[in-house]
């Protein structure tokens, strides 16, 4: 696919996988709309992408966990006259704690962001894409979507929802020229584990808190944010509207265990795989 003159809306774009999506798409000539809470990081990334690739890079600082936040984002983008060709629902967070010990307000925020905002944006932009007969939606789920995860119970449940919704929308979208894809990352070098930790994680001498936090969770860091966006965006959406989709994992580095066994499970639509072709 020629990404030039396509406009991509990316939530959670200030760092990690969201920023990797923005960087990869901008390098291929797409215009980007960056949404996250941290305005300073958004402005810096937007400026860098514009200067490096000559694309149009808009940004909008918003706390998407707030009530009606998704409505406000859509309204503002409409006010700016920005039409969205590709939607990347990346914003989300998790909490590592026993459910009984979790803050109910924090749980509500997680469900509102991981489920509510993603659903709202899918509803608005899939409707518009359907009317045009073209478009694509990438929903960032997780390997946690495939099984219950004690101590990350709410996060895993929200990602199971994302995966299920994406598979249903894949079927509906393929009838109307709209591609829908779910990405299921494993442990990735982002700030996710730091944010999920019940207590602050100090930086090491290099400031690599994310790496130390994955060790604290009993995980070994395996993937960079760009490894997920590279396999999905540039390879998988070509197959998103075919009769069979796939499941994307960062092999050959992925360790054995439940996640590895899930890789051997039956292939289902809307789950990304490193397949030939492009969007």
Q: What would you note in describing this structure?
A:
The protein has a six-stranded parallel β-sheet, sandwiched between helices. The radius of gyration is 18 Å and the shape is globular. With 279 residues, it is of the alpha/beta class. The chain has helices at 16-27, 39-53, 69-79, 104-132, 153-174, 192-196, 209-216, 225-236, 258-263; strands at 7-11, 31-36, 57-61, 86-89, 135-140, 178-183. The chain has nine helices and six strands. The model is unreliable at 199-207, 209-220 and 242-279 (pLDDT under 50). It has a single domain (7-186, 222-263), classed as Rossmann fold, CATH 3.40.50.
Observed structural traits:
single chain; 279 residues; alpha/beta; Rossmann fold; six-stranded parallel beta sheet; 9 helices; 6 strands; globular; disordered C terminus
